[in-house]
Structure formats: C-alpha cells, structure tokens
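Section 3.1: Structural characterization of target chains.
Under the original work plan, the team committed to producing a structural model for every single-chain target entering the pipeline before any wet-lab resources were allocated. The record below documents one such target. The sequence was received from the expression subgroup and is listed exactly as submitted; it comprises 440 residues.
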Amino acid sequence: MTRFTRAAAAAVLTCSLALPAALATAAPAVAAPADATAFAAVPTPATALASPPAVATAFAPATAFAPAATDATAFAPAVASASSVTPGAARPALPAPTGKYAIGRTVLTLVDRSRTDPWVPTADGRELMVTVHYPAARPGTGRPAPYATGEEARLLIEALGVGAAVPADALAGMRTHGATDARPAPGRHPLVLLSPGFGGSRWTLSHLAEDLASRGYVVASVDHAYESYGISVPGGRTLTCVACTALDEGGVHPGVVTTTRAADMRFVLDRLTGPRPAWRHARVIDARRVGMAGHSIGGASAATAMVADRRIDAGINMDGAFWEDLPAEGLRGRPFMMLGTHDGTHLPGGGDRSWDRMWPTLDGWKRWVTVAGADHYTFSDFPVIQDRFGLPAPTLPADRGVAVTRTYVAAFFDRHLRGLERPVLDGSTPDNPEVHFQHR
C-alpha cells in the first residue's frame, strides 16, 4: 500500500488529492464526531482519486511551490536563486481589498469541551483558533493586524523546505489590511466560514478573508487543532500536525478530517451566533445568512458541514476532493459551487472522479467552474507568497489568481446570501477568459 507519508504531506501541503486512494476505503482508526454518519464513506476505486501526475511523482517538500517540478533537484536551483526579502526592502504585502469597507480583525480562542479531540484524546477538549475579519466603521483605527506568528511561519516554511527563499520573520510580517479590534461598521452582515487545506493554517486564506470583509461580510477563518503544521495558541503553546502522523501511520480514512471539521464549524457557529457569543461584536452578524468556503480538504468539508448543519445556507469547494457521498436528500436544495483547476484533475472525467460523482447529487443551484493556468494553490495565499518571495509560480499570474478567486467567491455569496444578481456566474465573460463553466 502506498502510504501517506509526512514528506508527501509537505509536498502537496493542502492537496487532499495527495492522500492515497487506498486510504479512501480504510476504516477510521480514531473516533469521528457524532455527526460522522451524516455522509457515507466513499467506496472509491483505487484510481478514482489518484494524485495529479506531477504530485504523484514528486513527494519532496520543496515541490509544493513548483507544480512543474518532478523531483527535489528540479526545484532546488529555483530556491537557491529565488529573490528573498532583502534588508531595508519594503515589507511584502497582501493584495489590497476591493470593497468599500475598512477591515477590522480579532482573534478568538474557542474550546469545545463537549467533544474529545480525535487526534489528541488527552487534550482538554477540541481547541480552535478563529480569526474574524469584519467591516470596520472607518479606516486608520486600531493596530495593524499581523499576518502570522513567527513560529507558525517557521513551521510552514520548514515543512515546505523553502527557508532559503522565505525567511520566517518576513513571511510572518507580511503586511495586511486589517486593524486589530477596530470598531465594526453599523448594520448586520452575512457570515462566511473559511476552512484551510490540510497542513495549512487559517492565515493562508487571508487575502480572500480580507476582501470579503471589505465587501461587507463577517468572515471567520478557522484553524482546526492538530491539522496544521503549526498553530499558535494562548500560553505560548504550538499545536503541530498530529493528524499528519495519524493519516501516515494509522490507516485513518480522510473522512475523519471532514466530519471533524463539520463539528468544528457547528461549534464556531454556536459561539458566534448563540445566546452567549464569544465575540463582543457578534451582534453585527446576521445569523440568517451563513455561507462556508474552503480550500482543498477544507472545501470538501464545506459540503460535509452543510449536511451536518442546516444553518449553513451555501457552500464552495475550492479544488478539494470529496471524501464522502451526499445523503439521499442531497443538500436539501442549498446552493453549492465547485471551483477548481482546468487541468486533468478537476475537469469532467479527470483524475478526481469525486467531482463527477458529486455533481448529479447536488440538488440546488450549482456551478462547476474551472480556471485555466491555475494550480491547486491558486485559491489560497500561496500565489501571493510565491510572487512576493520570487518563488516558481503556476502559469496563471498571482494577480489574476487573486482576482478570479475573489470575484467568483464573492459573486457566489452575493447571489445566495444577499440575493444580488451576479451575471459573472452565468457563463464565460471577456473579463475573465481563464474561467470555464462545465456542464452548461
């Protein structure tokens, strides 16, 4: 059996497709949340969820940033010659948000003591770090929000093997556009939950979170305990990727990740919209309008979370393989969009057959959208990091990847959480020639 090694996890970082197909039929070796039965485990043939060719043949950590490379030596020269940040240079920055609002940001620590953590059963409940981006009343108030902690950045670049090009302090110090604990803008705003890819942290979806907040959404980006290379938590502690080892050595079905994340999102919703909210400005959230999006296995988790929690009105999977089938009732008519690469993976009949299998069972408004020139990381902050630190990049330039991701994610939520017409979702447009609609 091909094993999901920790080196493989580093190579693909957030790519759920890299989990071997043999694990797709393995019985979970750790306890799943109570709602794990909401989906049926996918009895997928061994070839159905095969890794893309470039990933399957290159499990060296450095190749995470080099989709075209097929081994570590192919990427090493690029890292050696990459232009890292030099002393005195301006700090790298996330792309500017496009909406009318200034952005506030706060970080919450939430602990669900009603559950046992599936990766570390001895932990004191299930611990989640949540970054809330939100529309702020006015710009220029509050301390600038940090991008990541130094330890989080160090552990990520160590896992990827790109420390020669990406100094941890420079990555952690990436300039953001949020102000810490700024006063929220008046009114009530839809809520969007974001879940990162496996191994990644919530801050790897920051450019999207900031842009949605600037457009009038409250955005809760969630770090799922022990599923990231490094999560800084209160008390100077760091939670590392215990789940990587469990998937590597324990024969654990990846559906444990998605069902666990569904329970995480249920708890986050309870703590943001319930009678005793964890955030002091939670009154600005309109709990009647909730969406979820995620990257890679975080995107697959959006579907799982919608099955488990009817409060989530709409969902997006950004380039993730689905690890469970929908139940007979589907999503009960709720809208869902699959947004992915235009290569041999996420086209109809491509390497990830889970999208073909999922498509007819989506019973509400739906779209299957692919982006030419994109790679798996296009739908996260990684193209920005590649661009800012001179690393090899996919065919699609970083600015276009950012623009396309923001445009289609925001249009989807505008349409389904705000009832606004967004013709960009109806088919190809001259302004977005990279974008293709499947099954139209």
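The longest strand covers residues 102-112.
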